Amino acid sequence: MTKTPPPKIPPNLDWIRAAPAWQKSSYCGQGDSCVHVAATTNPTGPAIQLTESADPTGAILTAPPAAFAALLRTLSPSGV
């Protein structure tokens, strides 16, 4: 079986090459369906990245820290 090489990263996304330090969600149970989060820096400044553990290199959501904080407040049962 031949392994497929990873996709080439476009030049405008070159900052993604630095491997983020992914941290698994504390709400993750057993299995492969977990959310991972990483604090990174991109060309516009600090960023928070989210990915799903079943396909960690597939879709990576990148957001400014303030937007990520707003998402957490929205999803929090207490709203804080």
Describe this protein's structure.
The chain has 80 residues and is α+β, with helices and mostly antiparallel strands. The chain has one helix at 65-75, and strands spanning 23-24, 35-42, 45-52, 61-63. The protein has a domain at 34-80. It has a four-stranded antiparallel beta sheet with strand order 1-2-3-4.
Short description:
This protein is α+β, with helices and mostly antiparallel strands.
**What sort of overall outline do the alpha carbons produce when their principal axes are compared?**
flat
Integer average pLDDT: 75
The helicity comes to 10-25%
- The rounded Rg comes to 15 Å
Kindly name the structural category.
alpha+beta
State which percent range the strand residues make up: 25-35%
Task: Give, in spatial order, the strands making up the sheet with the most strands.
Answer: 1-2-3-4
The unreliable regions are none
Task: Note the run of SSEs as H and E.
Answer: EEEEH
N-to-C terminal Cα separation, in Å? 50 Å
How many H/I helices? 1
Number of strands: 4
Largest sheet: 4 strands, antiparallel
